[in-house]
Amino acid sequence: MGMQELDPVIHAQARLRTITVLDALRAGDSMSFPKLQGLLGMTSGNLATHLRKLEDSQYVSVEKILEGRSPVTYIALTSKGRAAFENYKQQLRALLATTP
Amino acid sequence: MDNKNGHEVDPARILQGIEVDARQTREALSPDQRLLFSLWGTGWVIAFLAIFFTFAPLGAPLLPRLLGVGIAVIAFVLAIVFSAVHSAKRAVGTKGPSMVEGAIYGNTFTLGMIFAGLLGWRLHASGLDAMGLLAFSLAALCLVVGVLVVAGSLIWNDRTQLIFGAWILLVGLISLAVPAPYNLLAGVLGGLGLIALGLLHGARPALVSGEVVRGGHARA
Fold first, then answer.
1. Residues of chain B with pLDDT under 70
2. Alpha helix locations (H) across B57-216?
3. The predicted structure's pLDDT at residue A42
4. A-interface mutation test, from B3, B9, B25, B92, most A Cβ less than 10 A away
5. Which among A84, A96, A91 has a CA at the least distance from the CA of A18?
6. Which end of chain A is more exposed for a tag (fewer CB within 10 A), N or C?
7. What residues in chain A have their Cβ under 8 A from chain B's Cβ atoms?
8. N-terminal to C-terminal alpha carbon distance within chain B
9. Residue B214's pLDDT is what?
10. Stretches in chain A below the pLDDT threshold 50
11. Which domains are present in chain A?
12. CB A65 within 8 A of CB A46
């Protein structure tokens, strides 16, 4: 199994960490942008850029809701994103198994 | 091992990074088990010792009834408030079905406690004496807590909760085997067990945490 088969959307450190954090939530749960940013320790601009790429690939869903009078953005891992992340980890394990 | 750009890839290092991030995230989103077990264990020890010493030594109790019960109530109320605030803080910024499940579970806990309290009051009003009420109270508390926590361990596939619930059920059984007011010492034992569970959770997590069913449906 070659390296070129690893999912390029996930195989970038910032996006991999983002997906890992969102994967810790149970299916259907979502996390606010500030909470996700706090857990990842990323700037909001950087996180927004990576989330856009993940959203374009339909790996995360983004929902904007009003909490009181403040708009809050919630992010969730989609079933497609969760499956892609599982596949990515399986590929890594397979690569590890073939390492001499 | 190289990728198509010629950059070396270390799958072991990446997988380890994923593992570390996932663990840190779970810890950040879940209540601190060490803290809660230590808090509740201490609460149980103080509360049941305080009530015990309103009866013991027999004939010349160490504490006035009102003071002992007051200490127990304060210990439990402090534990409830602190746990609720701590758990709410960890849950801030997340939403979804888990929150609904948690709310239903938490409210069932409260209803179970109220139910047991009212049942005790009804039994007392029907002639159950103070010693009978003591035996009932601790056993009913352990029954409600133990059964709900074991059920929670299956909902969330969490071995720590299974050990916690099973321990509380065992304490309830021990309390029924000992005549009142000495049954209250089973409550003290229960509290010490919770403190030990908290310490083990910190020092030897592999021993007391993880999944109940490997590959089960829920995440710990």
1. 1-7, 216-220
2. 65-91, 97-125, 130-155, 159-177, 184-203, 205-208
3. 96
4. B25
5. A84
6. C
7. 2-4, 6, 16-17, 20-21, 23-32, 34-36, 38-39, 74, 76, 89, 92-93, 95-96, 99
8. 34
9. 79
10. 1-2
11. 3-95 (1.10.10.10)
12. no
Question: What pLDDT shows up at residue A90?
Answer: 94
Compare all CA atoms of chain A with the CA of B100 and give the residue at the minimum distance: A29
C-beta of residue B50 within 8 angstroms of C-beta of residue B63: yes
pLDDT at B6: 47
Q: How would you class A6 by CB atoms within 10 Å of its CB: exposed for 0-12, middle for 13-18, buried for 19 or more?
A: buried
pLDDT (tens digit, 9 = 90+) per residue, A29-46? 999 999 999 999 999 999
Rg value, chain A, Cα: 15
Residues 6+ apart with CB under 8 A from B147: B165, B169
Helix, strand or coil, per DSSP, at residue B133:
helix
Q: What is the DSSP string of B144-178?
A: HHHHHHHHHHHHTT-HHHHHHHHHHHHHHHHHHHS
What value of ipTM does the predicted structure carry? 0.90
